Amino acid sequence: MVSTQVKKNIVTIGASSAVQGLALQWYEKAPATHRLIMIELKSHFNFVFAFPRASVKSGFERELFIPYDRLFNEDDQIGKVVHARVIAIHEHHVELDREVPEFGRRIDFEYLIYAAGTKIPEPGRLHCNSKQEGVALLKKYQSVIKESKRPIIIGAGAVGLELACEIKEQYPDKHVTLMHSRSRYMARYMQSVDSMTYNVLKKHGVKQVLGDRAILPENGFPLEVKPIEVHTKAGKKIQGDLGIMCIGMKPNTELLAELSPDSINKKTGFVNVKKTMQIDDDRFPHFFAAGDVVEHTDVKTGHFAWMQGLAVLENLLKLIEGGSYNDLEPYKSKDVALIKLVLGDREAVMQTNAFGPLIAVGSWIAGRSTPHNVYAEMGWNILKTPYEEKNLDL
After folding, report:
1. What is the rounded CA–CA span in Å between residue 125 and residue 203?
2. What pTM did the predictor assign?
3. Which of the residues 118, 130, 150, 263 could staple to 240 if both were Cys, CB 3.0 to 4.6 A apart?
4. Which of 314, 273, 265 is nearest to 290 (CA)?
């Protein structure tokens, strides 16, 4: 076995969906000359797909924070996860905000994968780094939502839609308002996804305010129950006692922008990538990017982030095996928008091609198979830790 000292590093910034599929394949295909170093500030993988439900319903919070320790079966010669924050990127090394075993504050690399993701408001993503803090914050949301009588959800992407339905299902007597600036839901998907989603919300009794943009306070709303009034561009005034923001995705590109400002899309702030998933800056052909942080026609979901990561890996393996940058293959997106909206225990809307052609189906099919923890067991399987009670506090 090649010693740690002479192995070259492939560094990823981020360790979520864009990197996990790549890491699983890397474990099977890793050449003896390189290893994968995943830098991730969070102590555990956050299974965000269940956060809307876990912000309302209790009992499974621990299942949504999954340790990374076994991803490489504890073989540091193949790969390892380093828990730290990258504070600077250089051509062939990154600087960290703390000392970490083996590396100190610097990790050298031959190739970099920028998969830093995006920021969205809580509870869609939690702005904390430990499992203990994450579980506590979900329970805080549960408590505040339970106390509220007139919650207002602002923004109707997947998180807003799911959260509104979970609240109304759990607490039928609450007056739940969902505000959305567009005239339809999930505009990247089939029209029938919009109509079925609208009808599920109506069935739950959610008040829907569509086609009118909310005027928001600069710092959002505090996580507390108190009278609020949300004004809209059209002059409406919506009264409530709790405001929850579910809008405003922002790419985490500040780090890369310091070294490679030309690779950042000036209009959107996302990372421009070539067809090969290299960043669009010829000074750094050894930099790749994948996942939500990239400017791409792919819908920003875990599925597409995963597929982009696999494409990056195939090109990295070509280079490691002696290929040139001219040999790299373009990422071939299927450009098919797939999603499952979990709209309560027995309600869901799904756009899928699992049955052949792309179709949208409602609760009569999609609502029958959703486990209470919204498939969290799948996350444990990916990260190779048995989904057992004894492991839930790891």
Report:
1. 27
2. 0.95
3. 150
4. 273
Specify the CATH class of 131-248+336-391 in words. Answer: alpha beta
pLDDT, tens digit, for every residue of 204-215?
999 999 999 999
* Rounded Cα distance, 115 and 41, in Å: 13
Residue 168's nearest CA partner among 341, 48, 340, 344 is 344
Nearest to 274 by CA among 302, 257, 295, 292: 295
pLDDT tens digit sequence for 301-346: 999 999 999 999 999 999 999 999 999 999 999 878 899 999 999 9
Strands 294-295 and 214-215: unpaired
Q: What Å distances lie between residue 195 and 75, 348, 369, CA to CA?
A: 49, 12, 21
Q: Which residues contact 73 (CB under 8 A, 6 or more apart)?
A: 27, 384
Which CATH architecture best describes the domain 4-41+83-120+249-327? 3-Layer(bba) Sandwich (3.50)
Give the residue among 240, 245, 189, 191 at the shortest CA–CA distance from 216: 245
Residue 68: exposed, middle, or buried by beta-carbon count in 10 A (0-12, 13-18, 19+)? buried
Domain boundaries, the chain: 4-41+83-120+249-327, 131-248+336-391
Common-topology check for domains 4-41+83-120+249-327 and 131-248+336-391:
yes
- Give me the amino acid identity at 332: K
Tell how far CA 189 is from the center of its chain.
Answer: 19
**Surface-to-core class of residue 391, CB atoms within 10 Å of its CB (0-12 exposed, 13-18 middle, 19+ buried):** middle
Residues in the chain: 394
Residue 50 tokens read as 């269940």
